Amino acid sequence: AFQHPTRGIVVVMHLENGGTIEIRGLAPGSYGANLTSEPTTGQELGTFSASSTGVLRFSAPAAGVVTVYRK
Questions:
Q1: Per-residue pLDDT tens for 7-64?
Q2: CB–CB of 28/40 below 8 Å?
Q3: What is the DSSP letter of 63?
Q4: Taking phi first (over 0 means left), then psi (-120 to 50 degrees means alpha), and beta for anything else, what does residue 66 get?
Q5: Terminal Cα distance for the chain, rounded
């Protein structure tokens, strides 16, 4: 994870498999996520909300690299 100067926190993860992702410690609010895998680049997965406790959950359809960013 790193702090983008204008967008805030960005989390980048390598996934061995698709499935449910849970990230903790985020500021509450809206986040976007995209997936880059062997057949696709930058596939938007949608907009998701981090709860008041800072937990963000979403599903990734396949293995690859997921980037989560503040909207």
A1: 889 999 999 999 999 999 999 999 999 999 988 899 999 999 999 999 999 999 999 9
A2: no
A3: S
A4: beta
A5: 16
Q: What does the alpha-carbon distance between residue 66 and residue 16 come to, in Å, rounded to a whole number?
A: 11
57 neighbors 22 (Cβ within 8 angstroms): yes
Say if CB 48 and CB 20 are below 8 A apart.
Answer: no
Q: What is the DSSP string of 8-54?
A: EEEEEEEESS-EEEEE-SPPSEEEEEEEE-SS-SSEEEEEEEE-TTS
pTM above 0.85, yes or no: yes
